[in-house]
What we know:
A: mainly alpha; 38% helix; B: 134 residues; Cytochrome Bc1 Complex, Chain D, domain 2
Amino acid sequence: xxxxxxxxxILLAVCLTLSISSLAWSDSRSDDGSSHGLxxxxxxxxxxxxKTYQNECxxxxxxxxxxxxxxRSWVKIMGTLExxxxxxxxxxxxxxxxxxxxxxxxxxxxxxxxxxxxxxRSIDNVDTPLRISExxxxxxxxxxxxxxxxxxxxxxxxxANCASCHTGAEKGSFNEHExxxxxxxxxxx
Amino acid sequence: xMNWGVVTVLLLIVAGSAMATEPAVNERQASYREAGASNxxxxxxxxxxxxxxxxxxxxxxxxxxxxxxANLRTVGKHIRTGKLIDPMAPSMNAERLTDAAKIEKWFxxxxxxxxxxxxxxxEKGDFLQFIQSR
Lengths: 189, 134
């Protein structure tokens, strides 16, 4: 009986250690983007893989992770490139199709990743958001950020410029510890 | 001591970058001629570059220079987003006017955004003549 209690305690300790460390790992991605083990795939938003998406879209702005919006949002965005948030961003049909296929396949409701579940839970089924920054999850995550650090900061200007502060964003990492706000320094929560 | 092989390679690179706009620009202008345009003129291109047009979204007059700046050798700044735009002049930016598909893609987007319509073959040929000269 005593032996069973002993091994039970060991098992419990191992389970606790693993669950705590997986939480810790999911929150601390190393700077070079290397993985730490079994849970590494959960750490980052799915990284931008498609070269056409990267080339065409990041010519003007940060190439947002597909998993931050549902497929229906990407379809709508790709269908209205002629007026893309006030800009004309038309593409030829071949590139447009390739990018739409990539984005919808990797969309948050198709291929769940590190942050997509949180984004998807915060989006109503009847809504088709076009801006990641208008989703409830995004707003919640950024509600403590004063406008002086982003909107009124000439080096940031908009919440659309993820990589201005999220230094790991290009690698798909939005880890809180990697946030450096231009002219303000590291973000301390 | 630098060997002659390296010098030759460097000279070839310099010569190559000086000529880099010709294939794409010649090809584009040939196709504009087929569409009825002719006698491409840098001065006319420059005039259009600074020509103001009411932009519906912005509710103000804009020109190419609003975002690219009037001096093609300097960095431009997007009038709305604030994004910095590399110089258009090939003498400052060797990537400019080297890719025909890219030229057409941006003509289509920017003519529609700035002027509310696509540019004609003549206008595009004049713009290329102007940009290439800087």
